[in-house]
Amino acid sequence: MDEKIASGEAVENFRSHYANIKQIAMNIKSQDEPDIDSLVPQVDAALKSYAFCKERLAAVRALLGEKLPVELNNA
Asked: Are 5 and 60 in contact (CB under 8 A)?
């Protein structure tokens, strides 16, 4: 079992990375004029947060699969 998930430590990190993705998307979407100089660093940061969130979701799914194998396998 992933102790970080069980203790809730990873939840805060997931939330902060998810919020980061949302903030970057809002920043890019709300620009009146494109800021090309900041685009690549923003996309890099969003991709880093996306990778973290994807990993945490997979870990939580695996943990839930151990606890609820029948329900998840039939979904």
From this structure: yes
Q: How far apart are CA 9 and CA 52, in angstroms?
A: 14
Q: Tell me if 46 sits within 8 A of 24, measured CB to CB.
A: yes
* Mean pLDDT across the chain: 85
Q: What is the pLDDT of residues 10-33, one digit of tens each?
A: 666 999 999 999 999 999 999 999
Query: What single-letter DSSP state applies at residue 35?
Result: -
How much is the pTM?
A: 0.73
Specify whether the CB–CB gap between 17 and 49 falls below 8 A.
yes
CA pair distance 16, 25, nearest whole angstrom: 14
